[in-house]
């Protein structure tokens, strides 16, 4: 379609762009018409290399450079979310007038970019939420973004938790349609869940995100909402939904359930139940029945321990088990 329509710019998450790269690499003659036509790719999201356990929260630098050197395509990285309508930063190849070397240009594309006009930001120490950390590309903390200077970002220090981002402004979402989402807001700020750094050149680098949200194929899936629905099933006492790494989709959700005494539950029953509220791509890939789901000191489900147990058990998603077993 890109060839037929003579596309000049396309958009997608890193996993999609990795697939496009593979196709271009495999059949360069088939797509030779794209050279000189397609010159920009807008890309943001999380990419998980197939052969690495370490997670990367941006398009890999090597892929960015490959598109430029091989096809003359600038991969433009950015940060944002639907609730901010939707962009907060954009990373272009030329960020400053003094970008004279190819190394500098590649470094620009390796960041989430510069803030859009009218946005201001601070990175605050996660421990006290009062100390601003230096913009050196290394120090990290809570990212706060706003449009004007009327509201002090320090007002949220007692309410905001570690490893989250708060954002506010006239074009930022104030509420969600037909749902109570008060936990997503603090005063006039929208909490996004990102931890970040700024370089000395004011370029944003996203370091981490809230562990409870699951990102699959570039789309967010709320683990909390899914847990509530699963726990509304008559057989379920407790339910924990977490994201498990996937080489193509970044993560896939699975359900860990603790059943009520003398009850049984099958995976197909969970899928049928959730299908009333979720799209097919959002449905969990697996159901695990545990005698007891670990709880933290506050009585909440301890997802960190759940993940640790799955790691120790060397858990593999059902769709990946054949490949996993063949490598053993």
Automatic annotation (TrEMBL):
Keywords: Fatty acid metabolism, Ligase, Lipid metabolism. Residues 226-300 form the AMP-binding enzyme C-terminal domain. GO terms for biological process: fatty acid metabolic process. Residues 3-146 form the AMP-dependent synthetase/ligase domain. One of its GO terms (molecular function) is ligase activity. InterPro entries: AMP-bd_C, AMP-bd_C_sf, AMP-dep_synth/lig_dom, ANL_N_sf. Pfam families: AMP-binding, AMP-binding_C. Signal peptide: none annotated. PANTHER family: ACYL-ACTIVATING ENZYME, BUTANOATE--COA LIGASE AAE1-RELATED. Belongs to the ATP-dependent AMP-binding enzyme family. This is Acyl-CoA synthetase. It comes from Reticulomyxa filosa. The lineage of its organism: Eukaryota, Sar, Rhizaria, Retaria, Foraminifera.
